[in-house]
Design goal:
Elements: E1 4-7, E2 10-12, E3 18-24, E4 34-39, E5 46-51, E6 57-59, E7 67-72, E8 77-82, E9 91-99, E10 102-105, E11 109-113
Parallel strand pairs: 2-11
Antiparallel strand pairs: 1-3, 3-8, 4-5, 4-9, 5-6, 7-8, 9-10, 9-11
Length: about 120
């Protein structure tokens, strides 16, 4: 029903920026809330940012003011612009789509913040 593919991860120095993308299949994207999660080794998966179908956004306290979530419904894509990156942002970042109470996940993209 839904396939999600993340891209844009990589290695960046502290203070740098990355933009993650998540491309979704199908027509459900336009009406679905989208979320970015991340999971570091040995830690629980945590919510980073969320955006509703109408564009309302929410952020985890640790990334507020540094990260921006956005969506382009014409491209079936959600983005996560990450600025002022810190080593503690290092994690695998996952795209999530919720539809009728069911969560769809991408395979994840690695973000490493290191000097």
């Amino acid at each position: 029903q839904v396939q999600l593919v993340e891209s844009g991860g990589g290695l960046v120095q502290p203070g740098g920026s990355l933009r993650l993308s998540c491309a979704a299949s199908g027509s459900i994207f336009r009406i679905a809330p989208m979320r970015w999660y991340r999971q570091a080794p040995g830690k629980e998966r945590e919510l980073v940012a969320a955006i509703t179908s109408g564009g309302n956004t929410n952020y985890a306290d640790l990334v507020k003011g540094r990260f921006t979530i956005s969506r382009d419904n014409a491209k079936n894509t959600v983005y996560l612009q990450m600025n002022s990156l810190k080593p503690e942002d290092t994690a695998v970042y996952y795209c999530n789509l919720r539809h009728i109470g069911y969560d769809y996940w991408g395979q994840g993209t690695q973000v490493t913040v290191s000097s």
